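MarR family winged helix-turn-helix transcriptional regulator structure dump, as promised
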Amino acid sequence: MDELRPPTLLALPSYLAGHVARIGHRELVSALEEHGLRLPHFAVLAGLSDFGPLAQHALADRLGLNRSHLVGYLDELVRQDLVGRERDPDDRRRQRVALTETGKALARKLKDEAKRSQDVFLAELSEKERETLVSLLRRVVVADDRARGGWPD
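structure tokens r here:
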């Protein structure tokens, strides 16, 4: 037998995707720890880098994070001067979050490190296979977002 794991599990895409995610997280988490950050911190920095300033609730929704958990992540990022909060000009009752200049620079650096970490754990796959994998996984995630009413068609 060439495989260590039970064939029943190796036939389940959900098992495989979950296990591959854990492998990828190991590499990414290691890169983030060098900056004193965790994966949710990186998600916040990446989200704000990609979308620009957002209301706190919108950021939580886009990242799929619990809104009350997001507050703790933001508190740490504010403490490190990576993000700032201000009243949302569209709704003064809400907070809007934006990257600081330091946060923008770190987000760029972390995106590069994240890409390198993914290259390490996906070294077994060709570039074309990686693109296919990402495309297929993205389709599943987008379909789930639509099914949950998260995004319009």
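The longest strand covers residues 91-99.
lmk if u need the other ones
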